[in-house]
Amino acid sequence: MTHVSIIGSGNMGQAISSVVARGGNTVELFNSTDKDKPVTGDVVILAVPYPAIDQVLADRADQLSGKVVVDITNPLNFETFDSLVVPADGSAAAELAEKLPDSKVLKAFNTTFAATVASGQVGEVPTTVLIAGDDADAKAQFAGIVSAGGLKAVDAGPLKRARELEAVGFLQLTLAVGEKVAWTGGFGLV
Amino acid sequence: MTHVSIIGSGNMGQAISSVVARGGNTVELFNSTDKDKPVTGDVVILAVPYPAIDQVLADRADQLSGKVVVDITNPLNFETFDSLVVPADGSAAAELAEKLPDSKVLKAFNTTFAATVASGQVGEVPTTVLIAGDDADAKAQFAGIVSAGGLKAVDAGPLKRARELEAVGFLQLTLAVGEKVAWTGGFGLV
């Protein structure tokens, strides 16, 4: 059993919390008023929007040392919905890994809309969580948590592949905003 | 009815040729021995691997002037399968558009494995062709050809979105090579 901390209690945080609990793992969910409560999980999921990451690090970087830290963000320019705000050859996950050298950073859950995490379905297709990271043990541990909770987990490669995962997340968001796909759908992996 | 030229008679060229013909449009398929035969289609699909594009342009750039030109390539480093060979902030399609200023360049069919073009199915999901481009009429014309042939066509945005389409294509190829998805599957849009 793994104890999982989820920072951020929005749609994604809540949906992931249900998945974790369903798999028989324990979960603590932090909302924005829990700033002074330290995280106690061995796996910490940062379920906040990309612009809020720096504040989380300012508040909690020391608490994340040694832990598996999961970045789920899509670093879009949310005003234009027409570009990412991270360097073209980088990713939000790579930035996070640089800021947390003593954590094992994973990218996951950025290509799954909240409704598809909650339902376990992308349309008629079982929801797959793509996981990228450089620490094989951390990836396997997180994949186990995801699959115990009823979703499919697929190893998407090293952390540098977060660049492609964030491109998928970005494209999928533009398709949803443009009403080309529903928020209950998107890219299903089959 | 549109007359479509497809340069490249590999798996993708053949599969796309069948789609075009099925939709009641006419198609001419060029293989590598047809170098001296000029293209006559109003829409020209470059169904060759990325490294072969420059030779096609050397042979035929003047023939492509004024036409809709469709780039289906995934510009991977095929030795390492670990990176793209185009600039991080660019795409193969953007390069092509720069080299063909008098053509209307579209990106399409780079996120669909040949088997899914041929069968019309990504696993159990109908195959969707994502189309990016800056010329709305060209996009609509090509979407019409694709949908007449029995596949779904979705407007993925301006040609700059080819960067994300190529990231999807790259990621999908790494997942297939890593046996995480079958060549009859991949990302289905639902």
UniProtKB/TrEMBL annotation, chains A, B:
**Claim: Transmembrane helix is one of the keywords in the record:** no
The UniProt entry, under InterPro entries, shows: NAD(P)-bd_dom_sf, P5C_Rdtase_cat_N, STEAP_metalloreductase
What SUPFAM superfamilies would the database entry show?
NAD(P)-binding Rossmann-fold domains
Domain (Pyrroline-5-carboxylate reductase catalytic N-terminal) ranges: 41-75
Pfam families the UniProt entry points to? F420_oxidored (PF03807)
Q: Which UniProt keywords apply?
A: Oxidoreductase
Its recorded name reads Pyrroline-5-carboxylate reductase catalytic N-terminal domain-containing protein
